[in-house]
Amino acid sequence: MQTVVGGAITAAAAAGAGAGLWWYAAMWPQSQIFGPQLIAGRDPMEAALTFDDGPNGDTTLRLLDILAEHDAQATFFLIGDCVRQQPQIARRVAEAGHLIGNHSMTHPVLAWQSAARIREELSGCNAIFEDVIGAKARYFRPPHGARRPAVLRTARELGMTPVLWNVTAFDWNPISAEEIAGNIDRGIATNRRKGRGSNILLHDGGHMGLGQPRMPSLSATAQVLAKARAGGMRFVTVDAWG
């Protein structure tokens, strides 16, 4: 009996460890277990501002104004369905010289989806981009950061480089601009100590639909741009890194 129980405990422990490793590989933004993904460059004085889940009406337009005031370029990972609903704003993002990336058509957790659904989400988003801005995306960020080998393989088959991040603003939570900026500042400081660039995850929209309140994110962006530039930080788009 002890042998049977002990074997069951060992099997359960192994299964738990395997599940934990799979979750880490699928959800931790800096994990490379499922294959190479672009995170950031090696210059600790470089940072990329990346914005997910847009376009989002006046919020995205105000963000474009803030970036222009600071002469900064950013990377926008747009949801295809939001682009379909607000094509004129997506075009404004592209016309301002920012880099546009694919964030899927409807923002599902792709790690749990079938291979057919994954391809539909990514190719559908790129088809919308071609119609609206005249070009497919060359970079892809999985919604929620959730991926598995099939997600990364499909992105590459469609000519896109998967991109994650190494600074999380946590701005999807109802927190203040000061808290968001503090999260970013701490993330940049950590990366600088480690001798690497910073890929900053922010949001100008939300996957629940248009009209998501993101003004604290915009205010935090202005704060970070002013402070980082004063300290010699250079802002790039993710294509500068690969």
What's the gist of this structure?
The chain has helices at residues 2-27, 57-69, 80-85, 87-95, 115-133, 149-157, 177-193, 215-230, and strands at residues 46-54, 75-78, 99-102, 139-140, 161-162, 167-168, 198-203, 234-235. With 242 residues, it is of the alpha/beta class. The chain has two domains: 1-33; 46-241, Glycoside hydrolase/deacetylase (TIM Barrel, Alpha-Beta Barrel).
Rg, nearest Å = 19 Å
According to CATH, the fold-level topology of the largest domain is TIM Barrel
Structural class: alpha/beta
Helical content stands at 40-55%
- N-to-C series of helices and strands: HEHEHHEHEHEEHEHE
In the CATH hierarchy, what is the architecture of the largest domain at level 2?
Answer: Alpha-Beta Barrel
What assembly state would you assign to the polypeptide chains in this entry? single chain
Q: Summarize model confidence as the mean pLDDT.
A: 93
The tally of structural domains comes to 2
CATH-defined superfamily of the largest domain? Glycoside hydrolase/deacetylase
How far apart the termini lie comes to: 57 Å
Shape designation: globular
Enumerate how many helices there are, as a single number.
8
Could you give a short account of the major beta sheet?
6 strands, parallel
Percent of residues in beta strands? 5-15%
**Which ranges are low-confidence, i.e. pLDDT below 50, for 5 or more consecutive residues?**
4-15
Count of individual beta strands: 8
Any idea of the CATH class of the largest domain? Answer: Alpha Beta
